[in-house]
């Protein structure tokens, strides 16, 4: 069965590659692009409408592969639980693993539990801890990332893979270039993130790729209460607090 799935996946990938080199006439291009434009617009409209009055929320990112018995899962759940008790709602990518842990913690604490799901071959459904009216599914990663940034007052970044790195770097880039206002970014897990932050210092700062002050955009912690404290301390400077 696994071999058959591999063959199907390989065949689909080859079809996509070959399709990119096929000449299309103007009518084909126009009809295809027009459909994509309307689909993208519909995803933006749905996201804006459902999240416009969501209130202060913090997004929790992390691996979809993290199992419920893993310490990172339990930490993410505890962070979400504490965030709700400090007046925040919780947004996740809506899938399993760390995302499920975040929604579970928010659900247990009786807070707002939002899921921005993405249609992928192995992650098609939102987890069961998302408020039913706050589950939104997307086809396009870039639309989904806009929603994360637009409606979050902070990012809690648990250990994760390429997707987690993508979301982290997107936020850092937008803040560094002043395309969006600054908000707190918390990396949870010194052991996991220490090497990356060390590389930032040794390579990016030393070679002038970023300014040393850019590293102040990142906070690295280990404990749930430390992660929540970073969020609270950041907004306390502006005399702001959640208004649920």
- Rg, please? 20 Å
Arithmetic mean of pLDDT: 89
Order of helices and strands: HHEHEHEEHEHEHEH
Distance between the termini: 50 Å
Q: What share of residues are in beta strands?
A: 5-15%
Low-pLDDT segments, ≥5 res: 1-8
* Beta strands, count: 7
Tally of separate domains? 2
What is the structural class? alpha/beta
Please give the share of residues in helix.
40-55%
The CATH architecture designation of the largest domain is 3-Layer(aba) Sandwich
Largest sheet: 7 strands, parallel
Q: What characteristic shape results from the CA principal axes?
A: globular
Count of DSSP-assigned helices: 8
Can you characterise this structure?
With 244 residues, the protein is α/β, with parallel strands linked by helices. The chain folds into 2 domains: 2-39, no CATH class; 56-236, Rossmann fold. The chain contains 8 helices and 7 strands. Strands 4-3-2-1-5-6-7 form a 7-stranded parallel β-sheet, with helices on both faces. β2 (89-92), α4 (98-108) and β3 (113-118) form a beta-alpha-beta unit. The relative contact order is 0.12.
Short description:
This protein is an alpha/beta fold. It has helices at residues 2-19, 26-51, 71-85, 98-108, 141-150, 162-176, 190-205, 224-236; strands at 57-61, 89-92, 113-118, 135-138, 155-157, 185-188, 218-221.
Task: Furnish the topology, listing elements before pairings.
Blueprint: H1 2-19, H2 26-51, E1 57-61, H3 71-85, E2 89-92, H4 98-108, E3 113-118, E4 135-138, H5 141-150, E5 155-157, H6 162-176, E6 185-188, H7 190-205, E7 218-221, H8 224-236
Parallel strand pairs: 1-2, 1-5, 2-3, 3-4, 5-6, 6-7
